[in-house]
C-alpha cells in the first residue's frame, strides 16, 4: 500500500513538472530536459560500471550536455548550425584520454563513454526539436506526444494485468504480453484521435501513425532498458523517483520514440 501511494504521488508530480514546464516556458522545458539528461547519464554510467571498465563520466557529460545546449541555442536562433563543429573535439576526447591513460581494453571504455550521451542525451534533444518542428515553439505537439506515451504505458499495463497471457518477449521482460501491447496501441490510438480533434494540427492519419510509432518504439525502448538491467543484474536504473526507480525507468520509452515521432512530423506533418 505504501509503495502504491509513493508511486501515485511521484507519478502525479512527474506529470505536473513535464506539463507545467511545457506550458510555462520553452526555456523551462529545456531546463527539465537538461536535468533529465544529467541524471540519466549518471544512472547509465553507474549501471555500466557494475560490469564493465569505468566510464569516463566527464567526457560523457561534456559531449551530451554540449549537444543539448547547441541544439537549444540553434532552435532559439542564437547560433547557426556551423557551431556544431565544436562537438567533434568532444567526440575525440575519450580517445585522447585513453591514449595517455593506458591500461587494458581502451576501446571498450571509449565505446561505453560514447554510449552514455548517445543513449540518453541525444534522443532527448528531439523533444525540444519536436516542439519547434514548425518554427515557433508548439506546446500542443509536445503535450500530444507525452499524452500518447503515457496512454500507451497505461493501456499496456491495464490490459496486460487484466487479460495478458501470451508473452511478448519472455527472455527479457517476462511480464510483458501481446495483449498488453495491443492494449497500449488501442489506448494510444484513442489519445491520438482526441489530440487531433483538440488541436487540429496536421492530419488524423499522421497522429494515428504517430500512435503506432510510440507504441512500437516505446516498447522497444522499454525492452532495451530491461536488457541492460538484466545484463548488469539490477532491478531499477536508480532510486531517485520513489515507487518508479530511476530517471531511465521513466524515460526509456521516450528515448526511443521521440526521434521517430519527430521524423514523422517533419516528413509528413
> Span from first to last CA?
44 Å
The number of helical segments is: 10
Instruction: Please state the structural category.
Output: mainly alpha
The largest beta-sheet arranges its strands as: 1-2
| Major β-sheet annotation | 2 strands, antiparallel
What integer is the average pLDDT? 89
> Number of domains in the coordinates?
1
Helix-strand topology string:
HHHHHHHEEHHH
Task: Please give a structural write-up.
The chain has about 270 residues and is mainly alpha-helical. The protein has one domain (about 1-269). The protein has ten helices and two strands, in the order αααααααββααα. The chain has helices at about 1-25, 25-50, 55-75, 85-100, 105-120, 120-130, 140-165, 180-200, 205-230, 245-269, and strands at about 165-170, 175. The chain has a two-stranded antiparallel sheet with strand order 1-2. Helix 3 (about 55-75) runs parallel beside helix 5.
List the helices and strands and how they pair.
Blueprint: H1 2-24, H2 26-49, H3 57-75, H4 87-101, H5 106-119, H6 121-131, H7 139-163, E1 167-169, E2 173-177, H8 178-199, H9 204-232, H10 247-268
Antiparallel strand pairs: 1-2
Helix pairs in contact: 1-2, 2-3, 2-5, 2-6, 3-4, 3-5, 3-6, 4-5, 6-7, 6-10, 7-8, 7-9, 8-9, 9-10
In short:
By secondary structure, the protein is mainly alpha-helical. It is 76% helix and 3% strand. The chain starts with a helix and ends with a helix.
